[in-house]
Amino acid sequence: MKLVTSPEEAESFAASLLGRSLVTHQTGPEGRVVHRLYVEQGCRIERELYLGLTLDRATSLVTAIASAEGGVEIEEVAARAPEKILREPIRPEIGCQSFQGRKLGKALGLPARSLGRFARFLTALYEAYVATDASLIEINPLVLTEEGDLVALDAKMGFDDNALFRHDEIRGLRDPDEEDPRERRAQE
């Protein structure tokens, strides 16, 4: 993510990135060539958080994972300060309950005025996870604005390949350039 303050600065940054290899923790040392950029209007950020949903294989439950240290690699936080990673398991027979979102939001130190918004955000995220047969949804950073709103500035979703036959809308978003060439060949 890159913060720019003018259209000219955005154009310059885009030109320096498009068509070039980007190396991150997620791409590994070989990196990936950048073919697309997403541009979002800026907002007045008060705090950055991390929020994700994934299947906890030890409990067989979808689990919300959150941290008050958003905007950085969650793996770094887990290695440096594992106690800062919060977990909230979600029972499939009742789904995500608003009290779970308020509990997690309070543990993240959100102001009282934002707890209901956070609970609704988490519930909507869980519903999207289930409806799309996702294997991972990761919002990093999820920002709390100075106005008390929650905005997902960056998101990553992974899907269960075995369930894609049910989701033409997701298969249509496939970008082979973003896939590991070995995995692409294996799938073909």
Question: What does the model show?
Answer:
By secondary structure, the protein is an alpha+beta fold. The mean pLDDT is 88. The radius of gyration is 18 Å and the shape is globular. It is 31% helix and 26% strand. A hairpin with a 4-residue loop joins strand 6 and strand 7. Strands 3, 4, 5, 6, 7 and 8 form a 6-stranded antiparallel sheet that branches. Strands 1-2 form a two-stranded antiparallel sheet. The protein is built from 6 helices and 8 strands. The chain has 2 domains: 39 residues, no CATH class; 132 residues, D-amino Acid Aminotransferase, Chain A, domain 1 (2-Layer Sandwich), CATH 3.30.470.20.
Termini distance? Answer: 32 Å
Overall tally of structural domains: 2
Strand content: 25-35%
Order of helices and strands: HEEEEHEHHEEEHH
| Rg computed from alpha carbons, rounded to a whole number of angstroms | 18 Å
**What coarse outline follows from CA principal-axis ratios?**
globular
SS elements, strand count: 8
Averaging pLDDT over every residue, what do you get?
88
**Sheet of most strands:** 6 strands, antiparallel
Concise description?
By secondary structure, this protein is of the alpha+beta class. 31% of the residues lie in helices and 26% in strands.
SSE topology:
Layout: H1 7-17, E1 21-22, E2 32-33, E3 45-56, E4 61-67, H2 74-80, E5 86-90, H3 98-107, H4 112-131, E6 134-145, E7 150-152, E8 155-159, H5 168-171, H6 181-187
Antiparallel strand pairs: 1-2, 3-4, 3-6, 4-5, 6-7, 6-8
Attribute tags:
alpha+beta; two-stranded antiparallel sheet; 6 helices; D-amino Acid Aminotransferase, Chain A, domain 1; single chain; globular; 26% strand; six-stranded antiparallel beta sheet; 188 residues
